[in-house]
Amino acid sequence: MIEYHPFPPFIPKDCQRLIVGSFPGKENTRNPTDESWSYGARRNQFWPIMEAVFETQLPTKKAKQNLLATHKIGLADIIQSCERSKNSNLDSNLINKTYNPHLEKIISDNPIKQLLFTGKGVMKEFQKHFRISENVELIALPSPSPAFMMMTFQQKVDVYKSVLL
Known about the structure:
By secondary structure, the chain is α/β, with parallel strands linked by helices. The chain has a single domain, classed as Uracil-DNA glycosylase-like domain (Uracil-DNA Glycosylase, subunit E, 3-Layer(aba) Sandwich). Helix content is 32%, strand content 19%. It has 6 helices and 7 strands. The protein has helices at residues 26-30, 46-54, 61-70, 103-109, 120-129, 153-164; strands at residues 3-4, 17-21, 73-77, 79-84, 94-99, 114-117, 137-140. The strands form 2 sheets. The protein has a 4-stranded parallel sheet. Strands 1-4-5 form a 3-stranded antiparallel sheet. Helix 2 (46-54) packs across helix 6. The radius of gyration is 15 Å and the shape is globular. The mean pLDDT is 95.
């Protein structure tokens, strides 16, 4: 079954950093809600990491968007549609992918200085399928997926803090 990305990229005015992920989990693509917006899967650690980094609570989509806009951070994913082998959320099980046709334009039309990838695999796939200015720094962050257990939650927070603050 082909699944389509349920959320448009979030690009605030004067976006200087773009956090780039792969594709939402199946619970988000099959039943998208405001609560599941961008990294909103129940087990995903992205928003708890952001809350710890910025020492704030982010209970709503609006609160999350306000935080991102304040810090000139955008969100986008590289995959527009795909299928899942084994009905799994793992990036390695995403097949028959089509890529986000707007991503290069988003990057070229905004004063983006850094692309922050939600894992080394996402960065490698981006580099394989997209072309951008050499003036943009590429940084692989630790995956916020609960499946990435090579680092503790606090270690992930520390890395995100070192890049975002």
